Fold:
Amino acid sequence: MPDLLAAPRAAPEGFSDWPELLALIRGSFAYMDGRIDPPSSAHLLTPASLRDRAAAEHLYIAGPPLLGCAFFAEQPDALYIGKLAIAPDAQGAGLGRAFLAEAESLARRRGLPRLRLETRVELTRNHAAFARLGFIKTAEKAHPGFDRPTSITLEKPLFA
Structure:
């Protein structure tokens, strides 16, 4: 079991291990291969695209060794959680919940009223896990070229 003393935190200035971050995301999302259609956008990521994304969004990491990551993007009405990835051998230890707690704290500091994320229609275990954490389904969307919903949007209100 991983040491959760390596709790999620904002990536340090000068973070540069983009190949390791890419490997973490792809390893975490590998179980989706063959289960979701279209395939995960994780396959389109590169070290350079991750670096660019981190320049525009808040990158949070857990480690060392690198056990998890998430990108938090400020939107006008929410903090969007993207590419939440936990290393397979670190799953089930509460690290995902810890990243979501960091997202909630950041959103509150920024005055954003909700958290938002997307997950694929086929990943019903993810739907249930996020529901247990207070997320509710707010929308469905179809990827280009699909005539059926392929992903759902989930949100967690932060202010009553």
Summary: The first strand starts at residue 9 and ends at 10. The chain has a mean pLDDT of 94. The helical segments are 18-29, 47-56, 95-109, 124-132.
